[in-house]
């Protein structure tokens, strides 16, 4: 089974990893692809010189690599086969595209509430993905 698990630096992302590790026996054998998306639009600010934006981008990529390795270690320790992947772009666009184009059997996402009306039930990335993927979605 091909499972796509987008991760970021949030608390819910860590809880998803822990939850999957505890529930490995619920899932058929397969591979979990941990995906971290670096959102360059959120990193870019007006009036910031290109060299500084490149530096911020490089730091974001390094932080993403560290995050992926840390989360992968927890899943591997639990018995999962794990692949790591980092992409750039808007997570709300990148996640559904990868899930659909690469025929993942399951997408695992987290719920969050940010206090805004539109995000009370689901985070905007989660809500966007729910309406655009063809595979089943497991919400934590």
TrEMBL record:
InterPro entries in UniProt: Rossmann-like_a/b/a_fold, Universal_stress_UspA, UspA
Domain (UspA) ranges: 2-139
Matching CDD domains: USP-like
Domain of life: Bacteria
Family: Belongs to the universal stress protein A family.
Record protein name field: Universal stress protein Usp
Organism, scientific name: Syntrophotalea carbinolica (strain DSM 2380 / NBRC 103641 / GraBd1)
Record lineage: Bacteria, Pseudomonadati, Thermodesulfobacteriota, Desulfuromonadia, Desulfuromonadales
